[in-house]
Specification:
Length: 414
């Protein structure tokens, strides 16, 4: 039996580079950076003081003011991005067939702001003053649950937490669920708001973050010899995955077709990537096999590309393991050089970037790549976006715990 064909019919995002697709793409293709000195709290005492904050985001532009108070920032991001995706896809309000509509959204950490605030309240005012909304706000599934309520989606509703691979794993689950005929349409992607005092200090303690504090816009520099860690960011990227015939029947526009998904584990170290890229390459190979295509058919890879010394080399090695000589004919770039690392939400924003690259037939750039690492010797589209043929593209996300997840999308063809 032929597999169901799944397409992307709606996209919405909240990022440091914009809250609508047109603005976001203009900034991405223009090589702009959304990284700034952190403003939402006093970052002076921290080793790393830069981040990709969504400073223009106002939840009341998307959510009723009373409801805003019941949502942690990460869930606010998820609802806003889902609302934008729904509007982009021509879905207005509650769906007619909610039983066949699902929600699968990933988040690596969930409601960290709420956790911090209520812990302070517990210590300063006692247990009787802890909010009754604490658990509903901090739980990772608050994003998927609230999006389900917003749209009346009564189909499959789950959350995925695989650190920085969360969104990709969520979208892989969405692909599978529609292929298994469990739904016709699924809101999927990721949301994260871990750019908080505890989140920042924890990653600083791990020595995982860039300390290029005097040059925020140049701090995230994947594949560059002088990279010194990733830059934390926040936001959400939500896409609508839909069965092709269902999309055609309602006249939905189609951004791209989702061809395949692959996942694996490094089984090497809880936080460090496997140096040779064995686990990452396995996820990519499984995605290719699932898509039914050869490595030579892939034109572009949106890399995980975090700007960490070990991660960028490991991913480069993985690409070479999978694609062989074709690795040097591919365009490979990192969206994180411009928006930072959205942790569990990164895959959603990056798949949107990849789909827009296909639509515009343009390779997004890797900015700040001034001095390429000799161990990172692929075509990373340095500094400026470049026009080029993109029929098939891959998007990679890898996470602490050794999680690897790769998605393949293609230009939609009848």
């Amino acid at each position: 039996m032929a597999k169901k064909r799944i397409v992307i019919t709606g996209m919405g995002l909240i990022t440091s580079l914009g809250e609508n697709l047109e603005t976001f793409w203009a900034n991405i293709s223009g090589g702009k950076s959304g990284i700034r000195t952190i403003e939402r709290f006093d970052s002076a005492p921290y080793d790393s003081r830069v981040g990709g904050e969504c400073l223009a985001f106002d939840p009341v532009n998307y959510i009723d003011r009373k409801e805003v108070k019941r949502l942690d920032r990460f869930a606010q991001f998820a609802l806003a991005a889902a609302k934008l995706a729904g509007a982009d896809s021509g879905l207005n309000g509650a769906l007619k067939d909610g039983d066949r509509t699902g929600v699968i959204i990933g988040s690596g950490i969930g409601g960290l702001t709420e956790l911090e605030e209520q812990h302070i309240r517990l210590l300063e005012k006692g247990p009787s003053k802890v909010s009754a909304f604490t658990i509903p706000k901090l739980m990772v599934n608050a994003a998927s649950g609230n999006v389900s309520l917003l749209f009346g989606a009564r189909g499959i509703n789950t959350s995925v937490a695989t650190a920085c691979a969360s969104a990709n794993n969520a979208m892989g689950d969405a692909l599978r669920a529609i292929q298994r005929n469990e739904a016709d349409l699924i809101f999927t992607g990721g949301a994260e708001a871990a750019l908080t005092p505890l989140g920042l200090s924890s990653f600083c303690a791990m020595k995982a973050l860039s300390t290029r504090n005097d040059e925020p816009e140049r701090a995230s520099r994947p594949f560059d010899r002088d990279r010194d860690g990733f830059v934390m960011a926040e936001g959400a990227g939500i896409l609508i995955f839909e069965e092709l015939d269902h999309a055609k029947a309602r006249g939905a526009k189609i951004y791209a077709e989702v061809l395949g998904f692959g996942a694996s584990a490094d089984s090497y170290h809880l936080t460090a990537p496997e140096p040779e890229g064995k686990g990452a390459s396995l996820a990519m190979m499984r995605a290719l096999a699932d898509a039914g295509i050869t490595p030579e058919q892939v034109d572009y890879i949106n890399a995980h590309g975090t700007s960490t010394p070990l991660g960028d080399v490991g991913e480069t090695n993985a690409v070479k393991r999978v694609f062989g000589k074709h690795a040097y004919k591919l365009a490979v770039s990192s969206t994180k050089s411009q928006v930072g690392h959205l942790l569990g939400a990164s895959g959603g924003v990056e798949l949107i970037t990849t789909a827009m690259g296909i639509g515009h037939q343009m390779f997004p750039p890797t900015i700040n790549l001034d001095n390429p690492d000799e161990n990172c010797d692929l075509d990373y589209v340095p500094h400026k976006a470049r026009a080029g043929k993109i029929r098939v593209a891959m998007s990679n996300s890898f996470g602490f715990g050794g999680h690897n997840a790769s998605l393949i999308i293609a230009r939609y063809e009848l």
